[in-house]
Design goal:
- By secondary structure, this protein is α/β, with parallel strands linked by helices.
- It has one domain: P-loop containing nucleotide triphosphate hydrolases (Rossmann fold).
- The chain is 44% helix and 17% strand.
- The chain has 13 helices and ten strands.
- The strands form two sheets. Strands 4-5-2-7-1-8-9-10 form an eight-stranded mixed β-sheet, with helices on both faces. A two-stranded parallel sheet has the order 3-6.
- Strand 4 and strand 5 form a beta hairpin.
- Helix 2 crosses helix 12.
């Protein structure tokens, strides 16, 4: 026989979703689904001459992308004057050169960098040319292709110069970023690098980045000037990526062997670099992609071996 509290009990049960029976045991927490694989965007950084800060730009831009939650693979492809590890204060057990000659497996050369990025250190003073390393480059490219499949961005620091090795790397990249500074000699060398890429059978998308701009106006004007002269005199479409401001804290960070994004997070260079990372992130998915960088690179090296 219902009592005076029966209506209250029914109201509480309705509010709580209880039926009066024993509640079922809680469902075990479902594991988070794996992040879907995406086509990594490959950007190769190079310059017409040394001393313009190409490695520093590539490293800190990779970190800025990592801070935005991007999975970044940074490869120091300089086989002789590599310095990404030095700029990070790392002491890797082996590097790209050791992997190429077969003295070290790729997984032993990969190191963790700031903001969760993965770094493959380059070779220091490597005396053996890539062209005579038999299947070493193809083996390396095959191993890196697996890492690329788990990345959102692959950033390759190719160093400076206009040699055939950089041309081979550039032909496999989605985009090539030519780094320059406001100095006239650096600007002239940037035009020379752009002209070199024009002669490739299938030129990559070219972009220009001005480093060490003393003012916003100087950076913007130089970007406009290089894109205009490249189109008028070289017949090349070069898109501006942006500029990084001159910052007295950058040399201090280099001496401390720490990325300037970490050593001076609020400096002009750091703020500029984070702005560029935001631009790249906003562009994601809006640009055409080549096949995977390292898959393409492996195929090109195989063809070159056959040709020899």
């Amino acid at each position: 026989m219902p009592d005076q509290a029966d209506g209250l009990r029914q109201w509480v049960q309705a509010r709580s979703g209880s039926t009066g029976l024993a509640d079922p045991p809680p469902r075990p927490a479902q594991p988070e689904p794996p992040r879907p694989k995406t086509k990594a965007r490959s950007l190769l950084f190079t310059s017409g001459k040394g001393g313009v800060g190409t490695s520093n730009v590539a490293l800190n831009l990779a970190i800025a992308l990592g801070e935005l939650g991007r999975r970044v693979l940074l490869v120091d492809a300089d086989l002789g004057l590599a310095n990404i590890d030095l700029l990070c204060g790392l002491a890797p057990r082996c590097d790209l050169g050791d992997v190429l000659v077969g003295d070290c497996p790729l997984e032993s050369a990969i190191v963790d960098g700031p903001a969760g990025i993965k770094i493959v250190p380059g070779a220091h003073g490597m005396r053996t040319l890539v062209e005579v390393l038999a299947d070493g480059p193809a083996r390396l490219a095959a191993g890196l292709a697996a890492l690329e499949a788990e990345s959102d961005h692959v950033i390759i620091d190719a160093g400076s110069g206009l040699g055939s090795a950089i041309a081979t790397l550039a032909a496999a990249a989605d985009e090539v970023v030519v780094v320059t500074t406001p100095e006239p000699t650096s600007t002239a060398d940037a035009h020379a690098a752009i002209g070199r890429f024009r002669r490739l059978p299938h030129p990559p998308m070219l972009r220009i980045l001005v480093n060490q701009a003393r003012t916003d106006v100087e950076g913007s004007e130089l970007l406009s000037r290089i894109t205009a002269t490249s189109r008028e005199f070289l017949g090349m479409v070069v898109e501006p990526l942006g500029y990084i401001r001159h910052d007295l804290g950058v040399p201090d960070a280099v001496r401390a062997r720490r990325p300037y994004l970490i050593e001076a997070p609020n400096g002009l260079a750091s703020r500029s670099t984070r702005r560029l990372a935001g631009i790249l992130t906003d562009e994601r998915g809006s640009r055409a992609r080549r096949p995977g960088f390292f898959t393409t690179l492996r195929a090109r090296w195989a063809l070159e071996q056959v040709g020899r």
